[in-house]
Design a protein that fits this description.
Two copies of one chain form a homodimer. By secondary structure, chain A is of the alpha/beta class. Chain A is built from twelve helices and nine strands.
Chain lengths: 287, 287
Amino acid sequence: MIKRLAIIGVGLIGGSLSLALKKAGVVGEVIGYSRTEHVRQQALNLGIIDIAASSVKQAVKEADVVFLAVPLAAMSSVLTELAGNMSDNCIITDGGSAKGELVKLARSVLGNSFSQFVPGHPIAGTEKSGPDAAFATLYQDHRVVLTPVAETNLAALEKIRSMWQATGAEVFDMDVEHHDVVLAATSHLPHVLAFNLVNMLAERDDCDEVLRYAAGGFRDFSRIASGDAVMWRDICLANSDAILGLLEQYHQGLNQLEQAIKNQDGDTLITVFERAKQARDTRFSED
Amino acid sequence: MIKRLAIIGVGLIGGSLSLALKKAGVVGEVIGYSRTEHVRQQALNLGIIDIAASSVKQAVKEADVVFLAVPLAAMSSVLTELAGNMSDNCIITDGGSAKGELVKLARSVLGNSFSQFVPGHPIAGTEKSGPDAAFATLYQDHRVVLTPVAETNLAALEKIRSMWQATGAEVFDMDVEHHDVVLAATSHLPHVLAFNLVNMLAERDDCDEVLRYAAGGFRDFSRIASGDAVMWRDICLANSDAILGLLEQYHQGLNQLEQAIKNQDGDTLITVFERAKQARDTRFSED
């Protein structure tokens, strides 16, 4: 049970956590802060938060759990502001998509309270954002990864695990570094690839005509290029090492396919395409 | 009205055309040929064809329209076999995803009958294949591109246009070269990109674990990597020039993003991501 939950950033991710916990009956009250008053008001009106705070300081003061759901680039200023203002046993957790840089930052900003910080990442979302995009079942049957470090207080870790379990999510623990590579491979790199393709088409004079002939396959492939540009910039900058390592491998694979197409080497194409098809069909058989 | 339609290759594409024309009541009878007897029998049992032919020759002999729905690599032998065996006014059309190489091939194989060949490409499909994947509404509200050349007989072109319109498709005419670039950009290149990513993940020792954390975005992005490997090999080999040209551009774009990530240059990332997002949101507003 959480007596007072403070949510910093009441958009899709923060708002959906609040709605899920309220639905599960495991939270007393929710106080929320967002930079813009309009968003705070919207979250109040939608019943996502019970109290709108006018500052991070006010939001965290009497909270027992603080959930940070702001863009990664805003984490530094938010952590700095909450560091001096939270109560002694307050637990802090977050929903950031890249953990390495954030953990470093939290260690340096939070000082002794760093043991109360449980880094987390709910692997859920839509291409929409804002409080009106939030819904109580966003995390249902989705995975949440927690990436505790050596200093992390175990009671704090278990409290955050319970919180996510109450939303209907499956909770897993993972090393920070491993998390960042896994997410780079299945989310960050694919976004970079999709943004790059759609940008390349957008730069063509005949872009409108070209896209008119795009079928369902392209539509699915490019859906992630509708993601929020600021959020994805932040993720690319925060998880640059893992993304760059995988981009290097991706280039190599693409070069191999390019050579095969140039040399009319059908066997190499078949080998690569078959292995990909089999891996995907095995993993996502229900498609 | 088509008296006898011959379908060479009674899978998803050929089978769905037959079902759509039967439903529209614009075809007398449908004779079908596939290389394997099992598939022919299946197509008969499903009511996709009325007569199963045991050879291309038998299938086309008394047909007034022949639809070629075999993989691109099989087109050469099929065209050669039908060349000497079709009746004088028989019209030939096809469903191949790349037109340049096929038009060259047809011109050399069909001789005087080349004017009766209407190159076509229904832009529709699913990741499934075979007669049991066929359904009557596959082409409904989809685009079909016809790529007539200088020699193409106009009456033949109009007959094939009417045929596709009867399936509920919108029919457009396009230059062969333009078609091949447009399709490379919106279909062939995306498939190469998706196959390459999934293959790269499949080669990892921790592939299963990595894919366990893949969310909906990855699932959509990688869906096209479930496509038929042989079909996509054929398309890559047949449309190599257009695909290689776009791959070159794609590499350049990716290099630019790579540099931006390396240099922590958020402005470049935002510019690219925003342009991509805007192009996609504008074109696919209903997503």
